[in-house]
Amino acid sequence: MTRNFIILLLLFFTMELHAQTEHMKFADIPLTGTIDQFQKKLIAKGFRLQTDINRQLPAGTRAFKGIFAGRKGNVAVYYDSTTKIVYSAKVYFDTLTSDFAKTELDNLKSLLSVKYGKDNITDGIDNAGNATITVSTGPGTIYCYTLEDASENGYPYDWSTHAEFSDKANSMKHESVILNDF
Q1: Contact, 37 vs 77, CB < 8 A?
Q2: Are 66 and 73 in contact (CB under 8 A)?
Q3: What is the CA radius of gyration of the chain?
Q4: Are 22 and 167 in contact (CB under 8 A)?
Q5: pLDDT one-digit tens code per residue, 48-94
Q6: Is 117 left (phi over 0), alpha (psi -120 to 50) or beta?
Q7: CB burial of residue 78 (10 Å; 0-12, 13-18, 19+)
Q8: DSSP run (H or E) holding 9
Q9: Which distant-in-sequence residues (6+ apart) come within 8 Å of 117 by Cβ?
Q10: What are phi and psi of 180, to 5 degrees?
């Protein structure tokens, strides 16, 4: 009887831990559940599915457009193509000049500092010498950067600013599925 009680207690403890898993949020939507569930929540918030673009994207990526942080943005949602579980989402603002892309990055940093605190933000530089911002949160990370894409719209509007939100738990599960192939 004592053994059954211990097993029951361990089972309850495991279920309690699983229930308390907090997930990173994107547009106030937890980065968890299937892509179809996540898509319904995004659409309910006013985002639109980009059907033509989605036909060109690889499995595991879905594109949307909508308002994020008060600005029109493009959204890419990443999910495991086998399990369909969402693990990351990115918003990006494109057709910017270099200066405006940097200004957008500074604006993101200000907003993220208010929400997560300056102590959780790390400034960096990417391989091209552009500024980056990484925000560490309990449930995940946010990585912000600017990117020049000469194939987009042409000079001077060939820059974009990106903010990638990654859920720690689901990203690790996704990596685990990929690593099982090796």
Answers
A1: no
A2: yes
A3: 19
A4: no
A5: 999 999 999 999 999 999 999 999 999 999 999 999 999 999 999 99
A6: left
A7: buried
A8: helix 2-19
A9: none
A10: -65, -20
Distance of CA 74 to the CA centre of its chain: 12
CB-CB contact of 28 with 42 (8 Å): no
Closest CA to 157 of 96, 107, 91, 98: 96
Q: Which two tokens stand for residue 35?
A: 């892509």
DSSP E strands, the chain:
25-26, 29-30, 48-49, 61-68, 71-79, 86-96, 121-125, 131-136, 140-148, 159-167
E strands in 31-117: 48-49, 61-68, 71-79, 86-96
Nearest to 97 by CA among 22, 152, 40: 152
CB 104 within 8 A of CB 161: yes
Q: What is the pLDDT of residue 182?
A: 86
Q: Which long-range contacts (CB under 8 A, 24 or more apart) does 17-21 make?
A: 21/169
* Integer Cα distance of 95 and 92 in angstroms: 10
The pTM of this model reads 0.85
